[in-house]
Amino acid sequence: MIADQAVACVLRLAGRPRRQAALICLRPTLLVRLLCAILFPASGLLAAVVVLSPRPAAAQFVVCNQSLDVVNVAIGRDAGGTFETEGWWIVGANRCATVIREELTTRYVYVHAGDVFGRPVLYGSTEMCVGEKSFTVSGIDSCLARGYRPARFLEVDTQAVARWTLFIAPRP
After folding, report:
1. Backbone Cα Rg of the chain
2. Rounded to 10 degrees, what is the CA torsion of 154, 160, 163, 169?
3. Which of 68, 132, 153, 167 is the most buried (most CB within 10 A)?
4. Does 91 lie in the same domain as 39?
């Protein structure tokens, strides 16, 4: 929306004196006014259209740790017919970590979180595999036989939205 306002403002400004242009740009937001002032020359019109073209919002899954403990986080998700788990993200006290940066393609994301002593912070019922260090595991069967350990993941229903933030609250 801001990009559309700025482009419209620049279109209105083409060929007008700078003082008159400033008066036209008084209605839009401060950011749009600044962009109009910078992009005032007609030669800047193309740059305004390219730079200010609306981009789709980056979809992501974020885990925020609202506790006073450091939390180790692993995620699981459906990767085209088989489940895949990945970890570890270390999320400090009162910090957040983006664990999925690309567009969410499934409705459910599975999250395992434990404190630095290995005690669970989230309680789930879906068993998947995790590694001791950084890992990506395809499949959820025979964890021990493949050198991984089983862990319980909490199923998070993202309601098929583009962005989702999961808050881990302090223990009671």
Report:
1. 24
2. -30
3. 153
4. no
Percentage helix, strand, coil for the chain under 3-state DSSP, each rounded to 5: 25, 35, 40
Return the sign of the alpha-carbon dihedral for residues 146, 149, 153, 158.
Answer: negative
- Determine the structural domain holding residue 40 and report its residue range: 2-51
- Distance separating alpha carbons of residues 69 and 115, to the nearest angstrom: 7
- Classify residue 147 as exposed, middle or buried by CB count within 10 Å of its CB (0-12, 13-18, 19+): exposed
Q: What angle do CA 152, 150, 81 make, to 5 degrees?
A: 80
Question: For 42-70, b where at least 16 C-beta lie within 10 A, e where not — what string?
Answer: eebbeebeeebeeeeeebbbbbebebebe
* Token duo for residue 141: 């069967």
In a shared domain, residues 36 and 115: no
- The two structure tokens encoding residue 104: 């969410």
CA-closest candidate to residue 133, choices 166, 86, 83, 171: 86
pTM of the model: 0.65
